[in-house]
Recover the amino acids of this structure.
């Protein structure tokens, strides 16, 4: 289907070539499930801080596209967003069994899981992991993606080095 890789939408985590900033290769990547928006949107702030991208996967198996990006030769650390209901332990095990660059002489890839009991707790944990003191916090309801999606570029592309985190709250915009 258009816009899908292994049945996983890839627009939010679309990466052409090795993940990282222009002219560099990332040693860290962020991995979120592709079937739900909240963890992936919240993860974009972490990805910005790590100068990388957010890759998307199926909840129970590592997507082909994400695996290819992880094995680009430079990734040493993967940050999984959400608990095992969002991205399963099987996916984590698949990543931890990979050597950096798929080279058996290199170390195994390290995985850090950042997830709470639900979307709001995961968002809080991600913000605590990456928070840079700022006078601004962007708030968006966590029940639907349009508001979060509209605010996310503000968090990612602010010119200040203290880019504001995106905080989901359990409510509606009024």
């Amino acid at each position: 289907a258009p816009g899908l890789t292994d049945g996983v939408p890839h627009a939010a985590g679309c990466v052409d070539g090795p993940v990282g900033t222009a002219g560099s290769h990332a040693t860290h990547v962020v991995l979120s499930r592709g079937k739900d928006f909240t963890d992936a949107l919240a993860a974009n702030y972490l990805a910005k801080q790590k100068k990388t991208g957010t890759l998307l996967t199926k909840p129970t198996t590592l997507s082909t596209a994400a695996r290819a990006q992880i094995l680009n030769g430079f990734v040493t650390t993967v940050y999984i967003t959400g608990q095992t209901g969002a991205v399963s332990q099987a996916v984590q095990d698949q990543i931890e069994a990979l050597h950096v660059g798929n080279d058996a002489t290199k170390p195994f890839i390290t995985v850090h899981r950042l997830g709470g009991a639900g979307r709001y707790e995961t968002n809080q944990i991600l913000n605590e992991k990456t928070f840079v003191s700022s006078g601004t916090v962007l708030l968006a309801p966590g029940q639907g993606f349009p508001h979060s999606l509209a605010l996310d570029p503000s968090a990612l592309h602010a010119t200040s080095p203290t880019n504001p985190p995106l905080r989901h709250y359990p409510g509606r915009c009024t």
Residues 1-7, 9-17, 158-163 have pLDDT under 50 and may be disordered. The chain has five helices and eight strands. The first helix runs from residue 38 to 49. The first strand starts at residue 4 and ends at 5.
